[in-house]
Amino acid sequence: MQEIKSGTAKFLGSRLRQWRKTLPLKSFELAKLIRISQGSLSDIENNKSLPSADTIAKLYQHTDLNIIWLLTGKGPIKKTQHAPGGEEPCVNEAMETYGEDPALNELIQKLVRTYYRGDAEKKAHLVGFLIGADPGE
To answer: pLDDT for 52-71, tens place per residue?
Structure first.
């Protein structure tokens, strides 16, 4: 593998590692979350390879990472955290999908609130629990 030498992609791996360490999230946890090997993630973070479009899509779908920042270094590191009206993203969609079950609705709201407003330790516990509890697709 050849190291990336020019353009905004030169620092993509460094930005990915910088973002990951703000969570805090271990590399193997992120790799499992976005379903790539730990070695592939290491190669990306060490600027030895670029992520595939599929990997970028998984980062977008499964994390709060702002993909524009990842690719260009411009803008906030994280996606906009609050939708208009002060509610966290995904809560409205979850309520539409699971609106018939108030208990599940409440749990979803707590999950999203903890993820977006909790301190780093609470987020790490939440992410670790969900990774371990997820039965997969």
So the answer is: 999 999 998 889 898 988 99
Start-end of CATH 1.10.260.40 domains in the chain:
1-79
Tokens coding 112: 């999203």
Assigned superfamily of 1-79: lambda repressor-like DNA-binding domains (1.10.260.40)
Spatial distance between the Cα atoms of 101 and 84, rounded to a whole number of angstroms: 24
User: How is residue 116 written in tokens?
Assistant: 């977006």
Contact 76, 100 (CB under 8 A): no
0.85 exceeded by pTM: no
The encoded tokens of residue 52 equal: 């595939």
From CA 90, how far away is CA 83, in angstroms rounded?
9
Residue 78 forms beta bridges with which residues? 65
Contacts of residues 86-91 at CB distance under 8 Å and 24 or more positions apart, as own/partner, are: 88/112, 88/113, 88/115, 88/116
